[in-house]
């Protein structure tokens, strides 16, 4: 079993080609043929191309991209709802592509749970029965399934709804049942495929906050699929951005925002409220020196919007940056302002200069 921060799932050189002869098509793709040419010349679809990702234990890895980017295809390879054309998916060092039917069923029942966009609840089963369904499928006693179901329904704020049916609940409440079901399975890995996309914006925000609250305590390994950049930046420890089945950039979200490596990423992040997303730790000077003219203290994970409000917009101020009660850096307001300038605008300024 992986310790927190270790690689829990490793995706290595993963390819997926849809069509009648995917193995034959691999030589064209490896020879450099692009997705468009493969479709036009051979009527095969290149779904994923040379995907390499380390998913670390205890972290939320967000895989995002626009429709058709391959993100939902990718997550379905982890529990082998889809088999790849080539490559490996390693869970705790073992290639799940080598698993027979019995081991694959065990992986899906015990190691990985899944939360779907459309809730996937059983309409004729009570909320409690749905919440404990993973335990029942594993063959555990009804009282254990109900005990775990009640426990996690309570944790997601659904006390008193055990005897209701899914159709009697709002969309947000139904998705809470889906999360309770995934948590009650006690699986090490949670796969969440566009889990909040069908929800209204305010409910969606509540669900994001709930997920982060639970994760601070549980430290699950979570793979989260989304097409929403704001959502990705809010919840991700590690962000993977796909386009046309390939990885354009991956890394810590703050680093991607500050150092996009591709025009596609620059366009993708152009409308983001950088002050709301960027954190003090991303723009501070890393130091334990006291500094001069310090106006006060701020926490390392405070967003820049709050610091701007605190400073009253005074760019001459400095703040001591704290984490767990100790100083980890100094924030200079002038550095904060520079970080708010989008990369393309900064590049334009340098050309003019």
Mind explaining what this structure looks like?
By secondary structure, the protein is of the alpha/beta class. It has 17 helices and 14 strands. The chain has helices spanning 22-30, 35-42, 71-78, 101-111, 127-131, 133-137, 142-155, 171-184, 201-218, 229-235, 253-258, 263-268, 274-277, 280-283, 304-311, 333-339, 343-352, and strands at 7-18, 45-56, 60-64, 86-91, 94-95, 112-116, 189-193, 221-226, 238-243, 246-251, 285-286, 294-299, 318-323, 326-332. It starts with 6 loop residues before the first strand and ends with a helix. Residues 345-353 have low confidence and may be disordered.
Features:
single chain; four-stranded antiparallel β-sheet; disordered C terminus; 353 residues
Q: How do you describe this structure in short?
A:
The protein has helices at 22-30, 35-42, 71-78, 101-111, 127-131, 133-137, 142-155, 171-184, 201-218, 229-235, 253-258, 263-268, 274-277, 280-283, 304-311, 333-339, 343-352; strands at 7-18, 45-56, 60-64, 86-91, 94-95, 112-116, 189-193, 221-226, 238-243, 246-251, 285-286, 294-299, 318-323, 326-332. It is of the alpha/beta class and 353 residues long. The strands form three sheets. A six-stranded mixed sheet has the order 6-7-8-3-9-10, sandwiched between helices. A four-stranded antiparallel sheet has the order 2-1-4-5, sandwiched between helices.
Tell me the β content: 15-25%
Largest β-sheet summary: 6 strands, mixed
Treating each run of at least 4 consecutive H or I residues as one helix, how many helices?
17
In the sheet with the most strands, the strands line up as 6-7-8-3-9-10
